[in-house]
């Protein structure tokens, strides 16, 4: 399975399982896995996950056997963490950061020469907020799992094909927020945000795709995330530099102008 796709889909499935204390049960007819959740009292499945995704997650010990049958998240298999910070206006801002994002996670674990993380909390939170709007807006092509809509009675989509669903006001609002953020960042920097933050691409892949110089992706991403964090209010806006005043008159220190 393509690694960025696995990172996205496994993190999303783990989030769904965590929200409703859920578990997976295998469908004997299709071989896929149904997702059961406490959100509806475990009365019926709330979605499906493909066997290829679940098998890979089992192999990576992200899932374990459930005592009553099926699979549940393995202990210690964290893919998400809640972080909070105070914005420039004093408001507490909280967001969920996705620990499965490959390039972002790699940068998050590295430090610069002064010992500070290459990506601070504000930049990481901005990346996750953009990715969340990208997902809610339905911009990504889900190729391994389909749990956004309830299972239709008597009908099932083709294996691996997403089930059609009407566009909701929530999705439209997320798309508007996404486009507004990308416009603020600008066309020169929005490409690397889409590749790395939204589609979980590696830095080298993003560099090749966007035609960036080799090993420049880290610096470009940091600049883009800084501008994105300012757009979200996680960092203060940079004060515009004052233009130097025009020299009008040379004078000694005790000079006083004559007033006529």
* Tally of structural domains: 2
| Topology pattern, helix = H, strand = E | HEEEHEEEEHHEHHHH
For the largest beta-sheet, the strand count, sense and barrel status come to: 4 strands, antiparallel
Identify the quaternary structure here: single chain
How many beta-strand runs? 8
Number of helices: 8
Q: Stretches where pLDDT falls below 50 for ≥5 residues?
A: 97-101, 141-165
Terminal Cα span: 85 Å
Mean pLDDT: 75
- Biggest sheet strand line-up: 1-2-3-8
The gyration radius over C-alpha positions equals 24 Å
Q: Strand percentage, roughly?
A: 5-15%
What class, by secondary structure content?
alpha+beta
As a percent range, the share of helical residues equals 25-40%
Characterize the overall form: elongated
Set out the fold topology:
Layout: H1 3-19, E1 23-26, E2 33-36, E3 47-49, H2 51-59, E4 63-65, E5 71-73, E6 80-86, E7 92-98, H3 102-108, H4 121-136, E8 145-146, H5 169-185, H6 187-198, H7 203-210, H8 217-231
Antiparallel strand pairs: 1-2, 2-3, 3-8, 4-5, 6-7
Helix pairs in contact: 4-5, 4-6, 4-8, 5-8, 6-7, 6-8
Textual characterization of the structure:
With 260 residues, this protein is an alpha+beta fold. It has two domains: 3-73, no CATH class; 80-148 and 165-231, no CATH class. The chain is 39% helix and 13% strand. The protein contains eight helices and eight strands. The strands form three sheets. Strands 1-2-3-8 form a four-stranded antiparallel β-sheet. The chain has a two-stranded antiparallel sheet with strand order 4-5. α4 (121-136) packs across α5 (169-185). The N and C termini lie far apart (85 Å). Residues 97-101 and 141-165 have low confidence and may be disordered.
